[in-house]
Amino acid sequence: MIPRYTLPEMAELFSDQNRYATWVRVEILASEAQVRLGRVPEEAVKDMRRAKVPLPARVAEIEKERDHEVLSFLAAFCEDMPESSAAWVHLGMTSYDLVDTALGHTLGRATDLLSGAARRLRRVLVERALEHWDTVMVGRTHGIHAEPTTFGHKLAGHAFAVERSLGRLAAAREAVAVGTVSGSVGTYGLIDPFVEAHVCQALGLGIEPAPSQVVARDRHAQLLQAVALLGACVEQIALEMRLLQRTEVREVEEPRTGAYQGSSAMPHKRNPTTSERLAGLARLLRGYATAGLENVALWHERDLAHQSVERVVLPDALSVGHFQATAAADLVARLTVHPDRMRAHIDHTDGLIYSSSVLAELLGTGMEREAAYRGVQAAANRTIATGEHFSASLAKDGIDLGDLTPQRFLTNHDVIRARLENLRDLDD
To answer: Which residues form the Adenylosuccinate lyase C-terminal domain (predicted)?
Structure first.
């Protein structure tokens, strides 16, 4: 996690201080359950509640001597309570009962933050899609002018992609927001399952049904995949905006501050830096997803190979995804659209983008398909070679189909708008 790509609310969630605060909460909840079972005195739990959350600096200091973070945390936590009460802390638990249960709680909250940013992005895309539903522009395939579409239709596709990502995030949240308090190798050998049920219910977590001492890592891999897929959807938006901002296209322009400077050497440059940044961050997210897959297979009931990876990829992926979705929503919300440029590009190829409409109408008259296709293609080639308008080239072959306009392609367009309005209703 670096400050440049981490928003404050996500940084606080993954801070060492918050992690230790969550660990304290798990320890207290577990001890509360032990009180109900008659295994821990009530006074000990009262002392645990009065104890302060250990400072990260103190835990790090003890860890220099113990070389074990959980033991160091427990030592620091117990310093602030009587020895008679400290003796009951962590009763029957193993380290990852604490670590994984707290992690499930944190990942659930972090996924909620990310989903909130994604919902805002979806809302902004829908709003701007409806705003520009009738803003006609060229649709391009293989980077080549194809047929007319609208800018609203283009944004609608991105809105539905983000909606699918929200569904994947919801499923991943359910998968990852689980805990286990089952003791060494997950057999409940020294701890009653009631403790686990009490802790997880209080934290809003599911329970790992067959714990192996740790929560299964396919859950975390699923979350990282969902984050990476959202990142790829944002990258698609960013790539589209980059392409539409090229000098020879200039159909849109991303928002810029008054302090913006595009080049240290060329003062005229207005580079698509925000879009490029969003695309670059998606590459990181795909890398984190791969690391998550590598973490699934552990030796026997557990090993520690996953831990060092997760310390990096889980907070980084959620922070980067959250930043990326937030920045993408800001970009789309404040995007400058140039309808005049879009309309000019409709006419750039002298009517060639209407070739499929002409072909369809000729076929509708009963003309043989191969003859119709070759005839329209020959007229198109003359337009390319001479620069005369496509309708004039068609006229030389005796084909007069009237005015060629974008509306020929958009007669059924509002069926998609209706679907988009249904998506808008999710935020109402």
So the answer is: 350-421
